[in-house]
Amino acid sequence: MDVAIVGIGIHPFGRTPSRSGLQQGAFAARLALQDAGVEWKDIQFAFGGSASSGSADALVNELGLTGLPFINVANGCATGGSSLISAYNAIKSGEYDLGLVAGFDKHDRGAFNADPKELGLGEWYGEVGMMLTTQFFAMKIQKYMNDYNISENTLAKVAQKSFINGSRNPNAWRTEPIGVEEIANSMMVNNPLTKFMFCSPSEGGVALILSSADKAHTYTDTPVYLRGATMKSRRFGSFEVFAPSQALQQVDGPTVDASKAAFEMAGVGPRDIDVMQLQDTEVGAEIMHMAENGFCEHGEQEALIQSGETRIEGSMPINTDGGCIANGEPIGASGLRQVYENVLQLRGQAGDHQVPDDPKLAYTHVYGAPGISAVTILQR
Amino acid sequence: MSNQVPIAEGLFTWPSKNPALLGSRCQDCGIATFPVSESCSACSGQNVVVEELPGHGTLWTWTIQQFMPKTPYKSGETPETFEPYGVGYVELPGGVRVEGRLTENDPAKLAIGMNMEVVFEPYRTEENGDEVISFFFRPAA
Fold first, then answer.
1. Residue of A108, A211, A243, B138 with fewest CB within 10 Å of its CB?
2. Which comes out higher in pLDDT, residue B2 or B46?
3. Rounded distance, CA B88 to CA A353, Å?
4. Class of the A3-108+199-379 domain?
């Protein structure tokens, strides 16, 4: 059974002191139900995730106690993608034909402080100051710049594009364009990455209504079909976050594996994709993920970014809603925000950030600690 | 003289005249890992033996940590006394790439491919006066 997205809802990202994370999730869920023209009591099952705002299944207290099975998902930055895949499989199995996927979060300011013990690492690793995702991203792009001649100016250009796209998206957190020089000269966080090149933990909520494809037109005139949905963890030899050591022989990371599997599942290739949302925890991640997802060869990013091909009007529009850099990263909601954006794009409802020429195929990719990746391919 | 204690047991030989990082090597597939693990993450086997890792290698990648991390960071520093520090992966020949703090925090003095050596130095002082020893990588000739 094929699966369609028939309803979408979002709570604006950023900082909303008046609403808890859970309330932002409920806000998004109500909009998604309304968008699909269904009521909460019609929903047969739900998957959801939140890292810092309690259990996602507490949403039933806000939306109504209908007795539905609501399963909590926790998978780091890939939580949203993992929730979506779980719901996709539930419908594909034939067991259900209408379900909800939700993600929300509300994080404190500043970098995440992960606990080594939760990832099976010794306490010494955190005590000496290596338990920081920002260091991993910095070291990965540092090596990549060395190997593939990516310039520091290109790093800043990625962030510049993110803020431009954010300024065109009313639900984004960062809505003011920031110039290349200001980005490059902002506070150095982890060399070579400056403050404006990173996303920050933030707040927000997203919900999606999924149905079996044969019933999709009951709910909407514009269903968006999930052609591929994959999730992979790391194999031995890939360079990942929170790794006290790594193998001398490197293999492809989980992004490459999840991407290949998704393209195979969808029966399409990277050149068929019209718009893509790629994990941009920081600018280097967006650059490297372009190649890891198959959209270019390693090193081609320098020319593609310098010539503006990754902008909304370019040949390969990336992170058209401003991505994590302009939206921040509420962990539970972040991967679903990408899907929300792609549904808007495929429906032609993205307003000022709409990609021209009626996009038909869209791609999402999330990456999270300690080395997991989820990909979806959507088609209208 | 103050008492010197390692930051974690089994991470490196201590006390020792010639301390070394301790890794484990799978006797079935030959893969080494740091720190010591009871199983091999390459082949899932459990036939692993602890060995001393080489003390010299080359810098594979690096960054400078410019802001003071939150807990679990435990250096004895305050926001006022915090000094940015280098972090990198050093490729040890025949072994693995080990992540560690660098003694150098000047980006102009670090480059991928440069020679590095492991050193064992005081990291912080506990309330009881014990000096906590950790491992660092230092640029080498």
1. A108
2. B46
3. 39
4. alpha beta
A124, A152, A193, A241: best to mutate for the B interface, most B CBs within 10 A? A124
**H or E element that contains B49:** strand B48-52
Contact A191, A316 (CB under 8 A): no
Q: Which residues of chain A have pLDDT under 70?
A: 111-112
A224 to A114, A279, B111: CA distances (angstroms): 36, 21, 48
Q: Which three-class secondary structure state does DSSP give residue A262?
A: helix
Q: What is the pLDDT of residues A56-90, one digit of tens each?
A: 999 999 999 999 999 999 988 889 999 999 999 99
Q: Which residues of A138-152 are buried (b: 16+ CB within 10 A; e: fewer)?
A: bbbbbbbbeebebee
Q: Under an 8 Å CB criterion, which residues of A touch B? A: 110-111, 113, 115-116, 122-124, 126-132, 135, 138-140, 142-143, 146, 187-192, 236-237, 243-248
Domain residue ranges in chain B = 4-139
Structure tokens at A187: 């506070």
Where exactly are the structural domains of chain A? 3-108+199-379
Confidence bin at B94 (pLDDT 50/70/90): confident
CA dist list (Å): A195 to A156, A165, B64, B66: 11, 18, 14, 11
CA distances from A75 to A49, A70, A138, A281, B25 (A): 8, 16, 22, 16, 30
